[in-house]
Amino acid sequence: MKKRLLLFSEEFGPGGGGYGVSAHVLQTLSRHYDVTLMCYTPPDCEAVDRWFDTELTECKWRYEGPTIAERLLVRSIPDTSRFQHVNVMLKRARELSEEFDVAFACCSLEADLGRPAIQYIHYPYMGHSDWRNQVPGSAPWPKLAAAVLRGRTPKWAALSRYSFDRMRRNLTLSNSKWTAGKIRELFDMPSQVLYPPGTGSLSPIPWNQRRNGFVAIGRMEGSKRMDWMIEMMALVRAKVPDVELHICAHQDMARPAEGIAHRVAELARAAGPWVQMHYNLPRGELAGLLAVNRFGLHAKIDEHFGMAPAEMARTGCLPFVHDSGGQVEIVDGDPRLCYSSTEDAVAKIVTLIGDARLQDELRGKVARIAGNFSPESFAAGLLNHVETFLALGPEGHLKEHLR
């Protein structure tokens, strides 16, 4: 009989890299365990499969969602950061977790599941707040109510009875060495790196037949700096006239009414046909675009990991990344593929485009490390962590965790 596993995730959908990790977690665990998925809305498995190249429609698992009362409660408290609905569901997860052999959380917030569990952290967002230094959500009700009224505890913490101390007892997995360092810095707790699964496979098109094109993939938001990409690549094009830039974004994340989407579209139109905007590309078309171009470009500063440059590396592209965050691990920290400023990016890109031997050297280096970001590597590491956790049991885990 399969072990019972409770999988907690805030939401599933096509789009960001965090959703992709959740999709692969569900796919992998449901093939080996009796999984109950708890999240705010049931996933559209067909859409997720198309976007992340998963097979959720062929997997078996149960769904546990919020009650009508819980949905009404979430709506009663204005929230722009999803804290309310995540924590209402965390409260339910704690109530049910003892019915399972193991609980696993994969969401945007650090998870208190009421017992030692496994959590995958993309970034320790809650560690940057003063909440953990205020009255905890696990405090006695009279003290907690007074703290909420005085603004010393957020409403979501009171709703879920959240405890940072319980959260710190989890087995924590992180998406990069950089994120692991942030977790240690903010919570003084260990975590083990399990790189996310990048989709794609090595392009069959010979390198000398691929274009001097750059592909950028990501959400249409200011932190992705797609406007900067166009302006920087215009400087490159002044020296390398055949260079192209392809910016790929999911349609739901690129609403023209938003300022950054409008600015990027205007810059692309002004630049001319060498800048191409692609919205809502099916997985096959995105893979085809990566296959015919040589380079990738990622511009977010302090990116926690970077599923987009990982996918670029998996298809044989050479990704240029900002010299910060966890994304530098995708190129093994090679300074020739990491830039710190506009001038630095232009100089390094122009140098690489003009040096075939350097391209061959870096292609070999990126290819060797790209295997760390494969779905197969992720699944194997994930199963190993879950199996080890189950073998140790909660008490055994705590002895290992706290020593």
UniProtKB/TrEMBL annotation:
Residues 207-358 form the Glycosyl transferase family domain. InterPro entries: ALG11 (IPR038013), Glyco_trans_1 (IPR001296). GO terms for cellular component: membrane. SUPFAM superfamilies: UDP-Glycosyltransferase/glycogen phosphorylase (SSF53756). GO terms for biological process: protein N-linked glycosylation. GO terms for molecular function: GDP-Man:Man(3)GlcNAc(2)-PP-Dol alpha-1,2-mannosyltransferase activity. Keywords: Transferase. This is Glycosyltransferase. It comes from Paludibaculum fermentans.
